[in-house]
């Protein structure tokens, strides 16, 4: 889908590129939040009276799960540790690494692959882990499955170096290989399998195309991002929003069926007719959920490699069905048409765009109340901890209380590349 025009100006290109940032996500989400407070949105209204009760419940959950308030950051690494097992630590200990940079590149390879195939799995899929004999579903199942595939070398084109992912292997990955890795069968269907495969294939192609960002001495790979950031920030201090902006620029073409403007792929950006601007980005709402989830998940590998990641709260909350579900189930976001909860919705529907944008804006406000209640601030309890501790967990718990299968309050038709 293209909003390109033969008459696109340099100003149009600049406006489009500004959408590839966390700052644009937050600013436009707040615009829609302000419209909600003025009762000018068509799909949701905001009940501010529910902010304090929901924040209080999340605070109590954080204190219950983390009595010392030492909450790890929200990232893919928490999913790898499901059941209290340090799976990556054990796997990484099985080989010798030349240095922290080599270890960091491999960790980045794993994180990027795992995050990009982390969209909703559906309610019928599960993964049986051979080593533990445990069965996992949803995001934990996807994490454990992706880690097992990574360990097998499926994402590496180097037979004697399985713990890596590279452009050639990803571009050549087949549906049969991915389905086998996820244990997909007629009785164990995974939502959006083809979408995930296409995403990984295009990732491989784009890694090779953007060797300026992902190239290393041994070929293009996700871990090449580490070398790129070291060149760009030689003092080793890297702002989190800069990581996101780099990913949005370098990986923009991998997202299927998305809008582009003036030749700039916009990724997880959608139309909301009430979001009026005076430039070429009129009605465009950037969200960039998976890219932000990836950025959160790269903080630890980059830190292991010796970088210092700053301005964590420059990123936003994640507009996905656990955070967004908490706000609906908690009564903060109220559907104007209650019957909408009984229907399925595509990701590009304005109702879904509105839900996701309001989730970003409201999570910021919840975070401020939660921190105050915990006696913390943005420096010692960043948004990544609020999410982990936190709003994501609370959303899952509340969903299980409200619906036996733990499904979100809205049913989204997913292609495996958004939610």
Plain-language structure description:
There is one protein chain. The chain has 419 residues and is mainly alpha-helical. Helix content is 49%, strand content 8%. The chain has helices at residues 10-18, 22-37, 51-65, 76-80, 87-92, 100-116, 138-152, 167-171, 175-181, 193-209, 211-214, 224-232, 240-251, 289-304, 321-329, 350-374, 383-402, and strands at residues 44-46, 127-128, 135-136, 237-239, 260-261, 264-265, 269-271, 284-286, 308-310, 333-335, 344-346, 411-413. The strands form six sheets. The protein has a two-stranded antiparallel sheet. A hairpin with a 2-residue loop joins strand 5 and strand 6 (264-265). Helix 6 packs across helix 12 (224-232) and helix 15 crosses helix 16. The chain starts with 9 loop residues before the first helix and ends in a 6-residue tail after the last strand.
Shape: globular
Strands in their spatial order, largest beta sheet: 1-10
The number of helical elements comes to 17
Report helical residue fraction: 40-55%
Total strand count, please? 12
Query: What portion of residues belong to β-strands?
Result: 5-15%
Computed Rg: 21 Å
Low-confidence stretches: none
- What's the order of the H and E elements? HHEHHHHEEHHHHHHEHEEEEHEHEEHHE
Task: Kindly report the average pLDDT value.
Answer: 95
Largest sheet: 2 strands, antiparallel
Distance between the termini: 20 Å
Category by helix and strand content: mainly alpha
